[in-house]
Amino acid sequence: MNKTKSHLYIWDYPDKTQIKIPFGKLILWRSISNDKNIISIPSLIEKWSDSLKNEYLDWIYKLGNFKIRNKKIINYLRIRSNFSAWWFSLIFEKSNFSKSKYIDDIIRILAFKKWIKNYDFSIITLYSSNKKLSEIIRNYCLKKNIAYRFINLGQFSKINFNPKKIFFLLPFYMRGFFWLIYKSLYSLPLIIFSKRNKKKDKNEFIFISYLFNMINSDIDNFQNSSYWGNLPLKLNNDKKYSTWIHIYVKDKYLNNPYKASKIIEKLNLNNKYQTHLTLFSFLNIKIIFKVLLDWFKIYKRLKLINISKNFPLYKDFNFWPLYKYDWLDSFIGNNCIDNLLSLSLFEEALKGYKENNYLIYLLENQGWELSLLSVCRKFNIRKTIGFSHATSRYWDLRNFYDLREFSFRGDLSLPIPNILAVNSNYVLKEFLRFGYPKEKIKLVEALRHLYLNKNTILKQRFNNKILLVLGDYEDKNTNYQLSILENLPIEILNDLKIIFKPHPASKLNSNFYPDLKMEISYKPLSELLPLVNIVYCGSVTSASVDAFSYGLKVIVLLDQKILNLSPLRNFEEVSFIIDSIQLKNVILNFFSKSIYYASPRVIFELSEELPLWKKLLYKKS
Length: 621
Hints:
Layout: E1 7-11, E2 25-28, E3 38-40, H1 41-47, H2 49-64, E4 67-68, E5 71-72, H3 73-76, E6 78-80, E7 83-84, H4 90-93, H5 103-116, E8 123-127, H6 131-144, E9 147-151, H7 163-167, H8 172-186, H9 188-193, E10 205-211, H10 231-237, E11 242-248, H11 257-269, E12 274-278, H12 285-305, H13 307-310, H14 320-331, H15 334-349, E13 358-362, H16 367-378, E14 383-388, H17 403-407, E15 419-422, H18 425-433, E16 441-443, E17 459-461, E18 466-470, H19 475-486, H20 490-495, E19 497-501, E20 519-520, H21 525-528, E21 534-538, H22 544-550, E22 553-557, E23 575-577, H23 580-591, E24 595-597, H24 611-617
Parallel strand pairs: 1-2, 1-8, 2-3, 8-9, 10-11, 10-13, 11-12, 13-14, 14-15, 15-16, 18-19, 18-21, 19-20, 21-22, 22-23
Antiparallel strand pairs: 4-5, 6-7, 17-24
Helix pairs in contact: 1-5, 2-5, 8-15, 12-15, 15-16
């Protein structure tokens, strides 16, 4: 054990300019350094990535199976004979890229725990504005008899109150109750104007999809879809009947439920082989009371669990301060109501379907998907296919489970699809590497990316300098991305034509960046990629894989505040940058050459005839 440095400083800010350490050891919690005497937690995470990832999955498994008075948490939260509310919780979902960003801090703590075991410090000083992190480190120091200091360098931001912020200040039980009322009233147009003429006797295939980003879908006959490509057309041509149950998500194109109901009505007008419904068209008073009963049942169970007093330690660390919000939202708040609604609505929607029906859904491992799969178990719908439609990210923890989840065969076992359909060999190998059962995973065509089959380039000449900026799902990430771009020297910005494609869910006002003089475009990538030379993405943007597969130069901005969530992580031909200086250097170097050569690198399965999908769906059981 190394006892040469008794004082440890932890710096929890991306900005390193304020650091003044007189003596001792320095750890950067969220940033990288080239100084060998400084420890970087992000660097340690990448060095020990597989180990830390498996350790977190192990911890989540143990948490769900933790016993309080000889009964597992999973069993306390049983709400159906074959389903526990634990499965749809935010804690089990592990959405570290969006809903539960605190998970990144837990991964950092796991790396810190692994590193510090070789040292013996007498005092730890944390520079941070994160009071929850401070509480965890302070409790660790108390257990280890280490002196602790917390220096808060955070700045107070002006609070602007609006109805949404006021809602989230309410107690969780009030949020849950008001959310149920809101969702019921908001969905009235979907209930009133949607017809539910299900052809159960004919429909062999049931699809669960999102009614979102329909501007890039065929809204007349639904022959092509932004999620499903030309699969609907192939099914129609083969005279296969299908039911499409859509989950409406508000966007700029369908900005209210009435418009959504009109789209559904239009899709059903001239479509012999398809029936289109919305999930919330099944909502009624009976389901609302059913949700309330489930909600009260969970609330009573929470009293028995008393998690704030019984939350287990993980190797000297108490993570409860970080998990508290997600626990309450998952089992009392609006997130709980959303998932209970999905459970009851699927129970109503899937009544009467038979064992030989195929059910195919868009797999993102969100709470509603686990509810759906439990309903399929209940109705003995065994041919369930989860289609991993987007690109998979190494650090997107939603996609991965502890190996013991797959081996348990009890009535409260993890609901997983009968088949996991993936769109590339690269993703297939990653799932298998982390223990997904080989017999339950199949390779299929990448329906959203079929345009790449005809439109890849291997050599590019520069007649114009055109940069495509791909926005992120979260506006906060896109703001950071654009701020780095705006800091480029003005002569570089003036030399570039910039096209900005926002994410369909974005509400960002690009006028906040007047110096960028961007052309805003909502055209599909298949039309934009042929127009540009170079593509600039955030670290979470899945469309970066499209640009990479197309053959373009791709620049990915790594946000040091989060894990490396890029689907192109470890791809050598991609340029990863952390600031505007590095961005400038990559752009200048790229355009200093007259020709850009790209190696063949389409990673998706591409065939417009969809032989792999047909083999999967038309297989006789």
